[in-house]
Amino acid sequence: MSNWIDFYDFKQSVIYVNARHRDVHYRTIAADIVKYVHSPAAHVLDYGCGEATSADLVAAACGQLVLAEAAPNVRASLTMRYAGHPKIAVITAEQAAALPKRSFNLIVMHSVAQYLSASELERLLAMFHELLKPDGVLVLGDIVPPHFAAPSAALALLRFGAANGFFWAATSGLMRIFMSDYLRLRKTAGLSHYGEAVMLERLGKAGFKAERAKQNVGHNQQRMTFVCRIR
Ligand SMILES: C[S@@+](CC[C@H](N)C(=O)[O-])C[C@H]1O[C@@H](n2cnc3c(N)ncnc32)[C@H](O)[C@@H]1O
User: Fold this and answer.
1) What integer pLDDT is reported at residue 1 of this predicted model?
2) 0.90 surpassed by pTM
3) Which residues line ligand 1 (CB under 6 A)?
4) In 3D, which of 132, 105, 144, 145 has the Cα closest to residue 207?
């Protein structure tokens, strides 16, 4: 499903309706990730971090933050944004796979699983299992359930816009998303959906003891976050 990487590699992704949306989006996610950082010395990996414009908030709460992003233009902009930041490193997906085992107290993969095939997800879960310290935690966020995913995502965006001063931009942004490659890619590359029980079963097979969090990371509470520990 590498086409999704190209889709997200737009310098100005259509997914964010304007700069305010993008910044509120990443600030919300960063604030939610910080809740899972349990020590100021923690080593944290954010895999598929996207534009991560508020990663400095996560870095301020932990000892080291590694941002792994597969899309080259997004990664280049992250590298520029955080150049010289003492706690933030930006790496490729391949570099993440080559990191030493048991490196991280916390690994977050938010809003990425829907773009992965079942086998890609399985491979990444195995990689995270190796990269986590024995008492580390994997937070798998924004898992999209099988039913009404598109209407509930649109409604959640409009609510998020209304609460954060970009409602009208959200309405026109939704039109732009509908006219973009998003719908075509949904048909050709596919989007992966998981119910709660199915995801818990997959996480169990990957060697995790997992539970669904009360709240999803980010603004869309129809989607799910799973908190996973090594069994
Ligand atoms: C919706 S963005 C999520 C960004 C950020 N984590 C967030 O929550 O806003 C989806 C991300 O998934 C990444 N992605 C898509 N397909 C991927 C794949 N096959 N392997 C690795 N990353 C992928 C994209 O590069 C993009 O950064």
Assistant:
1) 41
2) yes
3) 1-2, 4-5, 8, 29, 48-50, 69-71, 93, 110-112, 115-116, 120
4) 132
